Amino acid sequence: DWKMDSFANEQINLIREKVGDGKVLLALSGGVDSSVAAVLLSKAIGKQLTCVFVDHGLLRKNEGDEVENIFGPNGNYDLNFIRVNAQDRYYDKLKGVEEPEKKRKIIGEEFIRVFEEEAKKIGKVDFLVQGTIYPDVVESGLGGESAVIKSHHNVGGLPDYVDFKEIIEPLRDLFKDEVRKVGLELGLPEYLVFRQPFPGPGLGIRIIGEVTGEKVKIVQDADFIYREEVGNALKEYAEANNGADAPWKPDQYFAALTNMRSVGVMGDERTYDYAVALRAVQTIDFMTAESAQIPWEVLQKVMNRIINEVKGVNRVMFDLTSKPPGTIEFE
Ligand code: XMP
């Protein structure tokens, strides 16, 4: 695609001009936007760029390692990569906290603290990169609906906790599909480029009520199974239908852990375990959404696998709720 190709080259030149021999810092989340921004910066200025990736222990299964494999020392790009394993810090801070907004606030503040500490270690930073894309610019200007209903800790003003001269936002003029095109062009793997949206507070808002390391493990395993089976079913559909998307293809789907425990039976044993909720939605703008009609047999397979493979779960439910009145996430 010549347009995206020239976009990348143009940005790389602009970045070089702007940065000179300065030092650049980027908070890498592993999402599409910050990853594409990281690659552009890496191509432009190599090791003048430091990417800090905070693993808050609320990522999806294997995600931390995937990010490290791509951007770390054994990965494909020329940059400094710092992974901060902050799991225990987050779990400590979240201990006993049940209120959703409080959880979001703690997760957001802890991120700032961890990032600030890393920035101090690096010393003088000249530029800070943000993966802002065009819809973010518009949404924060208008005070987007979801920004009001739930505090989006990763959208907002300039961070004041790192000393820097200037901000760099190489994706500011792009829509999401354009960011993806640039990502593919720059050699990022498809699984990263076509990742589903994943909230900044991560699994912290997909575990209803108190977050613990044990619950994180449960929701990671259940979610992995769900995504694997739905992914397979989507692929099978496409293969059987000349590459067409299934009409039920969700725009976002994931498992959440309710704080409900109930009685069940496994073998001849009584169980008293958690219920997992499966969510799948179809939406255009994520402001309104309908539940996606995942085929019954796919749901049944997922249910069987979760019950058999994930310890601590004895019930699986499917959330039918539209948005509104529900939100897509649970908290
Ligand atoms: P809700 O739950 O508000 O979600 O219906 C709408 C979309 O926004 C995502 N979401 C977030 N994304 N930080 C983010 O980057 C957040 O704090 C956040 N909360 C919700 C959600 O996954 C869905 O795609």
Automatic annotation (TrEMBL):
UniProt catalytic activity: XMP + L-glutamine + ATP + H2O = GMP + L-glutamate + AMP + diphosphate + 2 H(+)
GO cellular component: cytosol
Domain GMPS ATP-PPase, residue spans: 2-195
Subunit-structure text: Homodimer.
Superkingdom field: Bacteria
Physiological role: Catalyzes the synthesis of GMP from XMP.
Entry binding sites for ATP: 29-35
EC number(s) recorded for this UniProt protein: 6.3.5.2
Covered residues, full protein: 195 to 525 of 525
Annotated source species: Eubacterium uniforme
Protein's UniProt name: GMP synthase [glutamine-hydrolyzing]
Pathway this chain belongs to: Purine metabolism; GMP biosynthesis; GMP from XMP (L-Gln route): step 1/1
Signal peptide stretch: none
GO molecular function, one term: ATP binding
Keywords associated with the record: ATP-binding, Glutamine amidotransferase, GMP biosynthesis, Ligase, Nucleotide-binding, Purine biosynthesis
